[in-house]
Each structure stands twice: as structure tokens, then as C-alpha cells.
Amino acid sequence: MKIFKFGGASVKDAESVKNVAKVLQSQGFEECLLVVSAMGKTTNALEKVVAYYFDEGDYNQEIRIIKQKHIEIAQNLFEAQHTVFDEISLFFDDIESFLRRNKSPNYNFVYDQVVSCGEMISSKILSEYLRSVGYDNDWLDARDYIKTDNTYREGVVNWEETEKNIAALDKKKSFVTQGFIGSDENNFTVTLGREGSDYSAAIFAYGLDAKAMTIWKDVPGVMTGDPRKFDNVSLLSHISYEEAIEMAYYGASVIHPKTLQPLKQKHIPFYVKSFLEPENAGTKVGVSDENQQIESYILKENQVLMRIATRDFSFIAEEHLSVIFKALAKHQIKISLMQNSAISLALCLEDKYGRIDTLKEELESEFNIELSKNVALFTVRNADVRELNKFYEGKNVLLEQISQKTIQIVIS
């Protein structure tokens, strides 16, 4: 089988949904599984619903707005009597019913039960539209196949059970399912992390021993930099798994960090292509491909620089690191860059859940802490270190780290 993943931009409105069918016309839909994200900015809108719910705001009004947008999209795709309108209403009824009955104060749990509905609705609309234009498919609930623990918003996949579930699918059929979501042992929805739909596609590719996986984006492929942030960038036509993993780790938004590992394990080729120009080759990521080692630029924004020092000027030793890393894991704060000296440790951190102040307060019982918020991590891969000065021009540098071919600079 082959796996196609379509993100939110590729299904943001009725014309975009119709374009998915055009992509399938050029690429083929036989023995294919489609993984679909929520439409456009639906995830952001549903996050607002959750925020209003906990702040005792009018979340029902937000739900009505989101529902109306989906109905308007469907009205441009289907006849008025189509059953998809009832399906859309049921999904939104489920959100409202859950929020009325919910007793859990766990924000992350509530988040996953609500925000996951975006993928459920978009995949149902796409599945029904494809059927209406002649592409036969079965709609799958990804939660029946991808099983996780109960780490809400960052689910850890139970690979043994998940692989068994997915392998049971009929590989002669075609399917439409959701990205971003799985379920725990109690069948509560668990999301796989923001932008986790790429990871979902890789999980299905792994379980089905897919011959290839393609992610359809609004860019030509993996570029040497985000064209919205950097000038004179170019397409990387082929890179190795290892290079793609490095780029994802450093923050390249076109690749989800967890996506590559399951594909690499089974040597499944991975393509990033444009849904606007599906005939173009895009980027191929593979195990045996020549790796294009071209200078590439990555800007990871919304970071926090934390400087940690011992109170008595003693060395930062293993027992100190153990305390710090344990606290980071507890608050689900990820390290983007780490640098230590004799008596201090500098960490560039990704604070996805807004817990940095709590972490600071906890660590201040043992350390002196300095925070710099809203900084960015600028990374240059395959850099020509003989021309360092050009990377520093016009930047207020707070921290730098240089290895053989990678330059990283924390800037404010």
C-alpha cells in the first residue's frame, strides 16, 4: 500500500477538498490510505473552545461558529439531503455533550477529547466527497488502530498492539482516516502532539509495510529554509533519513520530529510534495539516497533561554543535572539546545504547555535561575564555518554553539 497525508492547508475549504481528488487522479488511489488533518485553522479554534470552557466563557458560541464553517464547506461539496450533514451535527453534538457531562479538571484530558474532533469531521467530509466523485474508500476511526498510553496531548504509542491492529486491514482496499489521534486502554482519545498527523501517517505506513509515504504540503518539498523567513532558498531533491531527522530535531517545520523513525526502521521511502503541483518530484527521503549536504537554515521561535547556576559556585555535577532533567521531564519541557560551563548550565527550551515559570520556581530552591523569554534558536546545517560572520550580522546573540558543520545561535 501507499500512504498519503493531507494537512490542514490542503483541506481548508471546499475547493481544497476538490483538489485532493485531483491529486489522487494524477497519483492513483488504488490500495491507498489517506491520513487527514483538521480543516484549516480548526485545531486553533477548538483550542479556544477548551480555553473558554476552563475560563467559564461562552464556549458554545465558539462551537457554533466552527460548526457553521464546516457546514458551509459541505454545502459547496454535497447536495442538501446528503447524510454528511447529519454526521457533522453529531460530531458537534458530541463535543457539547462531553463538555456538559465532564467532571475531570485535567486540562490535557479535556483538550484531547475536544480538539480531536477536528480530524474526525474533516476525514468524514473528505471520505464522503471522494465517494461522491467515484473514489471508493472505507472511513476508519484511527482510535481503533493507534493505541497509546494515557499521556494526554503527547501520547506514547503501544507499538505491539498498534501494529497488530493496522496489519489486520485489507491491503487491497483504500481508506480515509485521521491524523494526530489514538486512544488509551479505556478508549479515551489521546493526541500525539501538535502537528502529529505526519507521525500518524508514519505509524500506518509502518503497520502496513507501505511501499511509500507521501506528505502533501503547500511547498515544493523540503527546502533549504522556510521561504517565509529566509531569502534565496532552494529545494532539496533527496536527503537521507539521518539528515531529515537532524533537520526535524532542530525545528524544520516541514517534517514532524517523530515521523522518520518508524519509516527508517522498515526502509519505507518518504516523499514531501506539493498538492498544488502534484506532478513535480518534490523531496525524497530514503536510506540509500545520496545526501544533499547543502547549507540549510532553520528558525525555531517561541523558545526560552534558562541559565542555571549553583548557589555556592560549586561545579554543575551529575547530581545537579539529575535534579534539573527530572524537573524538565515532569513539566514536559523539551531541550532544544544545552551548553554547560563549570558552574552554570544554559538551556534553550521549548515550553509547549506554558510551565516555565513553575519550573523556575521549583528549581530556585536549589539554584540561581535567569530566564529570557521569546527568544529564537537559529540553526545552520552544513554550514561553511569559514564564513561565520555572515550568520551573526544584525542579530543579538545570547548563546552560540558550533560543531563541525552545524552552527546554532540563540537570538533575542
From TrEMBL:
InterPro entries: AceGlu_kinase-like_sf (IPR036393), ACT-like_dom_sf (IPR045865), Asp/Glu/Uridylate_kinase (IPR001048), Asp_kin_monofn (IPR005260), Asp_kinase (IPR001341), AsparK_Bifunc_asparK/hSer_DH (IPR042199)
Recorded catalytic activity of this chain's protein: L-aspartate + ATP = 4-phospho-L-aspartate + ADP
Domain Aspartate/glutamate/uridylate kinase positions: 3-273
EC number of this enzyme: 2.7.2.4
Pathway where it operates: Amino-acid biosynthesis; L-lysine biosynthesis via DAP pathway; (S)-tetrahydrodipicolinate from L-aspartate: step 1/4; Amino-acid biosynthesis; L-threonine biosynthesis; L-threonine from L-aspartate: step 1/5; Amino-acid biosynthesis; L-methionine biosynthesis via de novo pathway; L-homoserine from L-aspartate: step 1/3
Key words, A-Z: Amino-acid biosynthesis, ATP-binding, Kinase, Nucleotide-binding, Transferase
A GO molecular-function annotation: ATP binding
Binding site for substrate: 43, 119
GO annotation terms (biological process): homoserine biosynthetic process; lysine biosynthetic process via diaminopimelate
Cellular-component GO terms for this entry: cytosol
Binding site for ATP: 5-8, 228
Record carries keyword Lipid metabolism: no
UniProt keyword Ligase, yes or no: no
Entry superkingdom: Bacteria
Family: Belongs to the aspartokinase family.
Name of the protein in question: Aspartokinase
Source organism (scientific name): Bergeyella porcorum
